[in-house]
Amino acid sequence: MRITEDAVVGAFTGPAPAPRTLLLGRYDTGGRLRYVGRSTTLPQTPGRAITGLLTPAGDDHPWTGWTFSAGWGTRESLHVTLVTPKLVVEVDVDVARDSAGRWRHPARWHRTRPDLSPADTPPSGSGPTG
């Protein structure tokens, strides 16, 4: 079963003019941005359009110093660009979650949500199974 959910963009992979994937998070009840999953490869048009909505992060980004795996069972790390976590996007996700509440499968791009702020997204760990 798949549903749409909102999340905050915390980082992206690929070149700045056309991000390839988004790393997504949600704030927990303590105000900390928790990683919840990564998107599938973005279509070219949304990838280019989203560029102007992303702001490079400062040294105080909550994911500074983190490494992200390129995939299950691999030691390869992703090269990511951290961004100020202010853009909310809607993604299509499988309801399956891991024990930490992260999406078990990549999220599919749906659209940006300029009408929402990060505070409007559900807290980390919430959702149909969380």
Nutshell version of this structure?
This protein is 5% helix and 31% strand.
Topology:
Blueprint: E1 2-13, E2 21-27, E3 33-38, H1 44-50, E4 80-82, E5 88-94, E6 108-112
Kindly describe this structure:
By secondary structure, the protein is mostly beta strands. It is 5% helix and 31% strand. It contains one helix and six strands; from the N terminus they run E-E-E-H-E-E-E. The chain has one helix at 44-50, and strands at 2-13, 21-27, 33-38, 80-82, 88-94, 108-112. Strands 1, 2, 3, 4, 5 and 6 form a six-stranded antiparallel β-sheet that branches. The relative contact order is 0.30. The mean pLDDT is 87.
List SSEs in N-to-C order.
EEEHEEE
Helix content: under 10%
How far apart the termini lie comes to: 15 Å
Percent of residues in β-strands: 25-35%
Q: Which class best fits the helix and strand makeup?
A: mainly beta
Number of strands: 6
Low-confidence stretches: none
From the structure above, extract its key features.
130 residues, mainly beta, 6-stranded antiparallel β-sheet, 1 helix, globular
